[in-house]
Amino acid sequence: SVRDALSVLGQLLAGADKDGVSYEIATQLLGFTDGALIDDAVDAIAAGDGATLFQTVDRVIESGHDPRRFTQDLLERLRDLMIVDALDATNLKSVLRDLPDDQLARMRAQAKNIASHAGTLGNQMATRSPRCTPRSISARAKRCACVLRVCRSMG
Known about the structure:
Elements: H1 2-15, H2 23-30, H3 35-47, H4 50-62, H5 67-86, H6 89-95, H7 101-128, H8 139-153
């Protein structure tokens, strides 16, 4: 609605500096996960690089991003990578039509590297991570436990 759009615009303007609103400020104010963090996590999973995956999760937490939102965005990317792997370029553009061409090209490269793992990893993250640790453990420890499970499944 118009009221919602004005509210979002007000949030962005409140966070703007003399140069306007940057991508980094907009993602933080609106609660979106920076695409570079998602790309880094996907690349680390595809390479079987647990250390880089841990560093990426640490960057998510240290930068103030919501870890749950990051997990949700990562699951959505894994889903999108399975779609990219399953469809040819013509059909892909009709399904993922909101994505710019440069992002689709990056996702095609990622899909080649991770296609065999994406479904399994996404399923593990969605079903195990919420209940993989007791509630009394900190959010960082929960994310680390989830990353350990993902790393273990990478072999």
